[in-house]
Amino acid sequence: MLIPIASTLSSISSPSLSSLSSFSAHLSSPLLLSSTLPPPSTPLGFTPPPTTTLLSAPLVILLSYICYNFWSETIVPQKRLELSKSKRTGEIKSYLTDLKDTESPSIEKWLLSDWLNPEKKENAIPFLKDAKWNSGDNPVVATAALLLIPVLFEGVYRIISR
């Protein structure tokens, strides 16, 4: 029972040379080529985008700028103020003191170690010492560093491969 299946599989997996040549002849037939290609009715080259695209792109950019500006100038300062008040006298302070008093190591202690032990951290970018955002746990700094690594790798690779 296994032998006929194996011989059938071997004949399927290795096509004969004559079947390949007939297939390639079929692909290059003029009838097939003429029926599948559209007639060249439009010239190749630059085609300007529709006017709706040209009008909507600046609108999207403007709305994105307005939303970002509102977020960074209004929402972020409000939430930072709420957070600092809560860390000083509110719910977060009581949670941090309870967490600090527990003896067992936990993932919460590790995640909140910057808040449990507030000390001056080293700067992530050494030549920007006065920047407030210059820490390794800043997601913008971390993302910029992660995006810069492949760019530098590609540059070094291109220099070496010359």
Q: What keyword list fits this structure?
A:
elongated, mainly alpha, 8 helices, 0% strand, 162 residues, single chain
First and last CA, distance: 59 Å
Unreliable spans are 5-11
Largest β-sheet summary = none
Shape from CA axes? elongated
Report Rg: 32 Å
Number of helices: 8
Structural class of the helix and strand makeup? mainly alpha
Overall pLDDT metric: 77
Residue share in helix: 55-70%
Which range does the strand content fall in? Answer: under 5%
Order of helices and strands: HHHHHHHH
The number of distinct β-strands equals 0
Report what the structure shows.
The chain has 162 residues and is mainly alpha-helical. The protein has a domain at 120-162. It contains eight helices and no strands. Helix 4 crosses helix 5.
Write the layout of secondary structure elements.
Elements: H1 2-13, H2 17-27, H3 30-36, H4 51-89, H5 91-101, H6 107-111, H7 113-116, H8 139-160
Kindly summarize this structure in a few lines.
This protein is an all-alpha fold. Helices cover 69% and strands 0% of the residues. The protein is elongated.
